[in-house]
Known about the structure:
Elements (H helix, E strand, L loop, with lengths): L2 H30 L3 H9 L8 H24 L6 H18 L11 H6 L1 H19 L1 H8 L4 H19 L4 H25 L9 H11 L1 H11 L4 H9 L4 H26 L3 H8 L2
Helix pairs in contact: 1-3, 1-11, 1-14, 3-6, 4-6, 8-9, 11-13
Amino acid sequence: xxxxxxxxxxxxxxxxxxxxxxxxxxxxxxxxxxxxxxxxxxxxxxxxxxxxxxxxxxxxxxxxxxxxxxxxxxxxxxxxxxxxxxxxxxxxxxxxxxxxxxxxxxxxxxxxxxxxxxxxxxxxxxxxxxxxxxxxxxxxxxxxxxxxxxxxxxxxxxxxxxxxxxxxxxxxxxxxxxxxxxxxxxxxxxxxxxxxxxxxxxxxxxxxxxxxxxxxxxxxxxxxxxxxxxxxxxxxxxxxxxxxxxxxxxxxxxxxxxxxxxxxxxxxxxxxxxxxxxxxxxxxxx
Length: 286
């Protein structure tokens, strides 16, 4: 990657990731909160940014990727280093940083720098970004693993055991619990990936489900930016669920119902705004 292309890509990502986020962040705070200025300052001083951290952290991920690409392109000419080796090393580093986040007694991530930059959020998800890059490169080998006889059984057992340990049992010390939690996350991600791969024909563009999911996929940024404005505050549902024995299926049904309503509203607003070419470009990066 050349320097000119790098600058062009960064400028484009800054426009796509930051400008819409700033606009909808201000709009959301203005609609949902009374003391607008105080609330904005309060949100900006936290890593989560009132929920609008994702696009900011996503920009960090792209900057990381583009920068590594430039460095690798220079070294690749002399063949002194392989790109996959570099990403594996960075994955190990990000996993280490991930565990450091949960050791407040030894590592202080509560300073204003970490809060305003949201780098703590970036650290939590950078490892998955790197895994995605590696998985795309080694997809053929990964498919062979998925197709092995006992892998699906193994990964399901691991996910169930680790999830139960994290959610209910808590039999280990805190550092070990964080390791188990990370294993649970990875195993659940693998199960989701295996599910969509196994039923890929059902999610193709020739099916209604596939067309719907792919359409929503093209509007992911729109939905993310708008949904904070439309999210309902429903304390009565939480009170209802807490009064009775927890029912996982009931919680899923209620969550899906609210999600579909909010997503539908986001898509309607998105399509209305996209009528304007200017809004389409600067709000959603078209």
